[in-house]
Amino acid sequence: MSAASNRRGPGATIPPTPAGLVVPPAVPVPPGLLAAQVGAPGIEAAPHRPSLAELVETSGLRRVHMLAWRDLDDPESGGSELHADKVAELWAQAGIDVSLRTAVASGHPESVHRNGYTVVRKAGRYSVFPRTAVSGALGRGGPWDGLVEIWNGMPFFSPVWARCPRVVFLHHVHAEMWRMVLSPKLARIGETVEFKIAPPLYRRTRILTLSPSSRHEIIDLLGLPPRNISVVPPGIDPSFSPAGERSPHPLVLAVGRLVPVKRFDVLIDGLVHAHDEHPTMEAVIVGEGYERVELEKRISAAGAGGWLRLVGRVDDDALLTLYRRAWVLASASAREGWGMTITEAAACGTPSVATKIAGHTDAVVDGETGVLVEDPADLGKTLAGVLTDHDLRARLSAGALAHAATFTWAQTARSTFAALVREAARHQGRRSSAARAADLVGPHR
Q1: What CA–CA distances, in Å, run from 162 to 1, 281, 350?
Q2: How far apart are CA 221 and CA 218, in angstroms?
């Protein structure tokens, strides 16, 4: 996931929207797919599904602490940080006192109040994990009614020291990512922790992940019990919506941190291939990261500087404009828990061409909202084909809009809190009315 990394700092200048291809209208939903109306013969009123505020009111959970490696102000923040921010914001709006502890963010204060919750930044990039664990074991900052650990590669080992109800957000297994970003020695340490040390300690912990495909990987690669792994998809901000006109020329957009796991080098090669078949094509890569210099060299060596731009981070309005103007969103990523930029683009009516990996296989309904590519080397050929076929793009656009409409942050926040409520009931050894209400919300697996 990478959406948040592209919305911090000054935005790049985006040219005004020219006349071009109009966003195709959504295909009407067939009557058979519409929800049955309460009151129709044989249809009974569904049980009341409590709102997040109602769950909070009956839960007895008032102070919730979240642990994360980074927060939105970190230069390398991405989709995981955006997810934590959205959940924390909505929980705070519902009456929860939410605090988020992370590593320090260069140039930012130790403590900040954001979107209704408090961020406390202490310790460095690697020392944040042991220092947070020691602090928690000593009860500093507590007591808390609930704890949320965000396991982003390196865990905080909350099962060892936390005494309150807990859930863990684990968006995806890191696997080969360790060797992509760390020295061989540090990579071996990361792999050992992820695959050998951590799993036995988390076997009794409720794990929340973003997609069924990521759930399968967590079960298969980490060996965690299926009964403890639940799926709660991320939401989409309602600001992402179709409007205006498409670029008059083929425009391919990619959004993400410029880091090895996103494989922008592979994507650039694919874009060059697609450009050979569509000489008027333009491409924009949004995002920042330490691979930027090498990627700029690659673009220059390919002679693509005139039509392929690295624009860095952009503000929300500029990103929205690009989503709406693009013909296709592309991703060559090797690891994702979901692919939040894919569904943000989909909410603007923009289909995707992406690698067939865990996360992407749920964010993209292959052949209906976009196209998934087994071999990353085929990205360029697939992109060229989608750019050529107007009818295919129109159909994928309609499918993308319909699929994106099913994801909301309100449902994400409610379902994640419901999981914490059920863990609180288990912690207390009794079934409360709040836990029974949480059962109506999900997640159930």
Answers
A1: 28, 54, 43
A2: 6
The first and second tokens of residue 219, run together, are 């079960």
Phi/psi region, residue 209 (left: phi>0; alpha: psi -120 to 50; beta: rest), is beta
Torsion sign across C-alpha atoms 17, 20, 24, 25: positive
Angle between helix 340-347 and helix 316-325 axes, rounded to 10 deg: 70
As a whole number of angstroms, the distance between CA 67 and CA 281 comes to 43
Tokens of 192: 């050992």
Under DSSP, is residue 151 helix (H, G, I), strand (E, B) or coil?
coil
CA–CA distances in Å: residue 250 to residues 162, 240, 282, 284, 327: 53, 21, 6, 11, 6
Please tell me the pTM assigned to this model: 0.82
Q: What are the residues facing 111 on neighbouring strands?
A: 120
- Rounded Cα distance between 434 and 444, Å, is 15
Q: How far is Cα 189 from Cα 172, in angstroms, rounded to an integer?
A: 18
Cα–Cα distance measured from residue 90 to residue 83, given in angstroms and rounded to the nearest whole number: 11
Q: Which domains does the chain have, with CATH numbers?
A: 58-235+408-425 (3.40.50.2000), 237-404 (3.40.50.2000)
CB 147 within 8 A of CB 162: yes
Per-residue pLDDT reduced to its tens digit, 150-175: 999 899 999 999 999 999 999 989 88
Residue 70 reports pLDDT greater than 60: yes
